[in-house]
Amino acid sequence: MGQDKPYHYHTVCYMGDNGKMRSGIVQLATRQISRQTLENVRATLSFDENAVLISHSYLGRMTQTEYETGEIKVPSVLLNVLMIITVAAIAVTALKLL
Q: Read out DSSP for 50-62?
């Protein structure tokens, strides 16, 4: 898989009959995680078909380099402007309530 192409990262956690838990990270081309992929993760974690899926978390869309280093690109300028407007609207509303 390429270093510069963004992928969707998921973390999946299973618990077996004995109460032991194991988790793994999945790198996919799509945001959805299929049942077959979940079955493959379960098998890779050495659990039988009785294992229970405890949690699934979507970690986000990023390149492999961003995932490995933890250095995620800054959101776009438009998104930053939207966040500033939202914070300003909340502040104005809070001041009106005082």
A: T-EEEEEEEEEEE
Residue among 29, 31, 25, 59 at smallest CA distance from 45: 25
pLDDT, one tens digit per residue, over 11-58 is 999 999 999 999 999 999 999 999 999 999 999 999 999 999 999 999
Q: Is 9 in a helix, a strand, or coil?
A: strand
Scored b (16 or more CB within 10 A) or e, 72-88 reads: eeeeeeeeeeeeeeeee
Q: List the alpha helices (DSSP H) in the chain.
A: 35-44, 64-69, 77-97
Tokens of 95: 């001041």
Q: Grade residue 81 by pLDDT with cuts at 50, 70 and 90.
A: confident
Q: Take residue 22 and report the two structure tokens written for it.
A: 């194991």
pTM: 0.67
